[in-house]
Write a structure and sequence with these properties.
The chain has 139 residues and is mostly helical. It has helices at residues 6-19, 24-37, 42-55, 58-72, 77-92, 100-111, 116-128, 130-137. The protein contains 8 helices and no strands.
């Protein structure tokens, strides 16, 4: 990031957050500008994912998650846990009412392309929660 310091990144992210409830296009423009200046910055990429989640755009969130997954896998424990919990609860707790957030995260998971990412999320989820895996599957 030769031309962009942390203050500049924070400025773009804050501008995007400030206008995200009133003008999603402006918020996206701030993040697009920031990502063109610092394309490998985790904070910007994560904020773009979070913005799409707040806007309820499952396909947009999935697209940003793919980018995060390919560049910053080691920083996504919380996001993988969210998706993993939603998928697990959906499949293991039939008959229980899912929250709107869980249903949305299932849409995000469904919007991910078939293949590696969809296979890796459950594996990584259970790697990070081995006791849950044992209690769920009895191993």
């Amino acid at each position: 990031m030769p031309f962009c310091n942390a203050d500049a990144i924070n400025y773009f992210v804050e501008k995007a957050r400030d206008c995200s409830t009133t003008n999603s296009y402006e918020a996206r423009a701030w993040l697009l500008t920031a990502s063109s200046i610092a394309p490998t910055n985790f904070q910007i990429q994560l904020e773009a994912y979070a913005l799409e989640k707040r806007l309820g755009n499952a396909v947009g969130a999935a697209n940003h998650f793919i980018s995060l997954f390919s560049k910053f896998l080691n920083c996504l424990d919380e996001e993988i846990a969210e998706l993993g919990n939603s998928v697990r609860n959906h499949h293991m707790n039939k008959g229980t009412k899912e929250t709107p957030e869980q249903l949305f995260l299932l849409q995000v998971f469904s919007a991910l392309p078939k293949g590696t990412i969809k296979k890796e999320i459950p594996r990584l989820y259970f790697e990070n929660h081995p006791n849950l895996f044992k209690s769920t599957w009895g191993t």
